[in-house]
Amino acid sequence: MPGSCRPEAYDLALIGLSTRALARSARRAGLRALAIDLFADADTREHAARAVRTTALSRRALLATLEAHAPAGLPAVLGAGFENAPDVMAAIAQRHPLKGATPETVRRLKDPRALAGLLARLDVPHPQSADADGPDVLWKRAGASGGAHIRAGSRPRGNGRYGQRRVDGRAASVLFLANGARAEIAGFSEQWTDPTPSAPYRYGGAVGPIPLIAPLRATIGAALDRLVAATDLVGLASADMILPAGDETAFTLLEVNPRPGATLDVFDRGDDPSLLARHLDACEGRLWSATPSRLDAHAAAVVYAPWRCSLSGLRRPAWTADWPAEDDATPKGAPLCTVFASARAPEAARALVDRRRAALLDALSARRDGARLADDALEPMVTE
After folding, report:
1. pLDDT at 338
2. d(CA 342, CA 350)
3. Residues 38, 17 contacting (CB under 8 angstroms)
4. What is the torsional sign of CA 371, 326, 350, 198?
5. Whose CA, among 150, 156, 193, 367, lies 20 to 30 Å from 378?
């Protein structure tokens, strides 16, 4: 019976490519979440009141899934997967009030030309647009995420491509909350790539918090305030940027992600207040800061399948998430799982997460080569 679940069974719906991090944050906030994504993996099922696997994030598939499992009027928080689909967001909003950026705000922030014009008017540093090929030009696909779509030099085939002049420096991101008038920064992180010949800018992971000098934090905060006020942005969001070498007071803003993103894994932890709870408050206009309960750094890295494979038969380490179901085979190049690490400094956390990622890939290679792995084969990687 469509929509037959009791209205009081859930506090909200979480919808996206993967909702595991949001579901975990919801559980930390004491919220009963209906999680709808493409995986409904064991971690998501553990944290959500219920996890439902949808076939796609298309309008037809999602509306059918929501009709079958969610009572009309249940608030919805959208994660990754809607950057290029404000029409799908609008369709969901007809049945479920959206807690987060509106479709119109997403449309403005994810249109490359519109964003470049807005940043210029707001006096926010951003890359120069490019219309012709060149060794210093990066071609991106509008509305895409994850970095795998970025190509250097020559414009790839296909619609929706736009060019930007390359900006050299350290890749960073700022996670913030917005209330339509100003922003509250949750933390800064450093990002890295996990390149392949066909996807040299594929997202690899992030570590944070990273230290930035107070004047730069203030400059970025003021830029975010102007951006939020100009776009009516509300809720959790992030902005990717480049920090140039040799100038610790400068930044270049590359992109704005008007939804909870990958660094939720980096900052939503310990005894700190749930970032989803702060997101919901921000959507109602309430911003509040929180002093981190932990001063260490945390890293999260994506492990991509080196070939079509499964993790079946491997003993799962405690420092992983998004572990696929036993009978699921992951296609080559697709995300296989997520690996975490904590340490006293960002550099140490990054080094540890890299070792853990390598250990997991080595275990997969050994198994493929016929080696029998001990149950505790990955346990030496638990600590620094």
Report:
1. 97
2. 8
3. yes
4. positive
5. 193
Token couple for 183: 């922003």
Amino acid at 258: P
pLDDT tens digits for range 268-292: 987 889 999 999 999 999 998 877 7
Residue among 379, 188, 194 at smallest CA distance from 302: 194
Locate the DSSP E strands across 198-269.
203-208, 234-243, 252-257
Place of tokens 């969001």: 237
Measure the CA–CA gap between 127 and 242, rounded to whole angstroms: 10
| Whether residue 227 has pLDDT greater than 80 | yes
209 upstream amide cis, omega within 30 of 0: yes
Query: Residue 240 and residue 108: Cα distance in Å, rounded?
Result: 16
Report pLDDT digits (tens) over 27-39.
999 999 999 999 9
Residue 381 has pLDDT above 90, yes or no: no
